[in-house]
Every structure is written in C-alpha cells, then in structure tokens.
Amino acid sequence: MKFPIDRFDSLKTPFYYYDLELLRRTIAEAARCADDPRFHIHYALKANANPLVLAPIREAGWGIDCVSGNEVKAAVENGFAPASIVFAGVGKSDDEINYALSAGIGCFNVESLPELEVISALASARGVTATVALRVNPNIDAHTHRYITTGLNENKFGIDLRHLDEVVDRALALPAIALSGLHFHIGSQLTDMEPYRMLCLKINELQEHFAGRGITFDSINVGGGLGIDYNDPDAHPVPDFKAYFDIFRDNLKLGDSQQLHFELGRSVVAQCGSLISRVLYVKHGVEKQFAIIDAGMSDLLRPALYGAHHKIENISNPELPVETYDVVGPICESSDVFGTDEHLPRLQRGSLVALRSAGAYGETMASRYNLRDLPGSVV
Ligand SMILES: *Cc1c(COP(=O)(O)O)cnc(C)c1O
C-alpha cells in the first residue's frame, strides 16, 4: 500500500488511516460474488463504525448487522434503512429492545427463550409485531481463536439444538412475534471454508427436520466470519469472496422464495485500514532493542486481547538497513506489545510506522485506558 507520507507528517499520531478506494473495490468485489437476487449482505457495524467508512457501504445498498442499541442508532443516523437492520446479541436490554422496536428494525436475531418472551411482551405493549430469527448454536468448530469461535455448545451464543424445537414452537405461538427464520454465526477470522460447508449441511438437515413438522422459514442468515490475510495484506488486499459465496451457493438448499442473509464485518473493512504511529524512543535493553511507539493497546487492542499480529512497516524509511526490534506501546501493561523480534528498516525517533490490516476491530475497540486520547482518523 502507498501511504501519503507528506500529508501524515503534520498530523497528530496515532491515527487510523483508511484507503477508501480499496474499501470501494472490496465492496464491489463482494457484491459481484454475491450477485444473486436471494442474497442480502448486512455489514457488521461493530467491525468499524466510522461514518467515513460507513458511507460507501450505505451507497452500495447493503443492510446492517448490529449487536447493541447504540449500534442500531448509529446505523439509523448514518442513513441505513431501518428495515435493513438486523439486531443480534445475547444480552439485549429492555431499553435496547424498545428502541429497536420504535426504530422499526427488520429483524431481531434472538439468542434465548427468555429473550424471546421479553421481546414479545415489549412488542405487545407497543401494539407492534417483532420480526425475529432464532440464532442457533449449530455446534460447529470454526477452527479459529477460542475467543472468536462462537458456534460450539460451550459458547454462550445462540439456542442449542436440543432446545430449538421448543423455542420455534414458542415463537410460532407468541402473539407479537413473527418468526422469519434461523440465524447462525459460527466465528470470526475463518480462512478455511470447510466449517462453512459443515454449516450448510447442518442447515439443510434442520430445514428438512422442520419441513417434516410442516414448518418452513422465509429466511436463513449465515452470519459472517470470513477471514483476511494479516501476514501479507498487499498480496491479498481483497478477500476471496468468490470461494466464500460459492460455498453457500453450492451447498445450501434454499427453498422457493427463501432469502439468504450474510453479515460480513472484518472481510469488508480490515484491509483498508492501518494504524499510523510514530516512534517515540528506541531503547537498548540487555538482549533486545525496543521501538516504543505512541500507539498502544488502547488504540489497537487485538494483539493484547487475542495475541493477534498486525504487519508492521517503517513507512518513513523503507530503504534503511534492517534491524531487529520488539515494537511496543506506551501503556502500563506487559501485553502492550505489537511485535517481538520484528525485522524492520532502521527506526529512529520520529519514524512513522503503519500497523496494517487494522480497519476491523481497531478503532471500534479503542478505549481511554490510562486516560489516553482516542486515536484520530483520516481517509
Ligand atoms: C461480529 C459478528 C459478525 C461479523 O463477524 P466478522 O467476523 O467481522 O465477519 C456477524 N454476525 C454477528 C452476529 C456478529 O456478532
């Protein structure tokens, strides 16, 4: 990626830099591969809620996937049609449910029987009907980091298969509930397509089971989770959307007029973003050389939270001879480390570094820990 270094020099670091041209290219490629009248993409807002990033997504006509009331609000404020909003989450509060009902969102992705009862009661009280999909925990191993796998029995998400019949029956019986279908989301940063194929087979099985009981669904929602290449972002700036959508096209049996919904987050926005930071100090330790940068885990939490690694580049002096550094942030936590034994062109005080592939779960996870300022953003 080419960075506008001259422009960066006068800016306060750290900040997120978004390449909107790459974002538009990514959106266009996803739309091309999902070109089927039955397919609908809802962008997962929690990956990145920056209005400048949301604009091209809205222009593409996509819907939104939310996991909090404030996300529903942000989607509405950023011009997304309420009917295109789906709302998941294991712990929706009454206030959040009431807000979503008043906004007229398209669908609640319901994760438990007690939640279903509460949505029905709150919708009844307002004299409206809530459209819901039941989030099913299909007990499929996504083979990803244990903090981002969501579709196993041991995870807190969704309704387990043993209770599904009972919850479907209840949804069909409740007065203020319109059951539209089943929802799944098995995990994040999936680079192997096999778990998605397993998911398709499981959904086929479930649909057959319910058809046998005379129950059919208007929609199926398969969630998100498509991974990206963190190691070599320039080799794979756009994820393999064709392989992803083809898995569902080839393996999922959709009924007549049945709609298929997707919730893509990371795969849409990760590669267009980088966290730009400045080297504060180069410190020589006993056996190590530390590059202390002005970005920390408060700006980009993924390394500290998941042990994730973002490719680090010296964008000021890529021509200098390579040295070895531990690249660390300024925060008072030993986990505030972005890379150990990184081979980078020589760094000095003031050098700009880019932490690549930071467009997803970067800015939205930023905090004010240590009372630091929130990172800025530039496009
Ligand atoms: C986070 C989330 C997504 C998006 O996941 P990605 O891995 O970013 O594609 C989709 N659906 C639900 C319910 C989520 O919680």
Number of helices: 11
Gyration radius over CA:
22 Å
Specify the helix fraction band: 25-40%
Q: Using DSSP, what is the number of strands? A: 17
**Strand-and-helix sequence, N→C?**
HEHEHEHEHEHEEHEHEHEHEEHEEEEE
Average pLDDT level? 96
What structural category characterises the helix and strand content? Answer: alpha/beta
Largest β-sheet summary: 8 strands, mixed
Distance between the termini: 14 Å
Which runs of at least 5 residues are low in confidence (pLDDT < 50)? none
- Strand content bin: 15-25%
What gross morphology would you assign? elongated
Which molecules other than protein and nucleic acid are bound? pyridoxal-5'-phosphate
Summed up:
By secondary structure, the protein is of the alpha/beta class.
Could you explain the architecture of this structure?
The chain has eleven helices and 17 strands. The chain has 379 residues and is an alpha/beta fold. α3 (51-59) links the parallel β2 (39-44) and β3 (63-66). The longest helix is centred in the middle third of the chain and has 19 residues, at 194-212. The protein starts with a helix and ends with a strand. The model has no long low-confidence stretch (mean pLDDT 96). The structure holds pyridoxal-5'-phosphate (PLP). Pyridoxal-5'-phosphate (PLP) is lined by residues 44, 46-47, 65, 67, 88, 185, 188, 223-226, 263-267, 360.
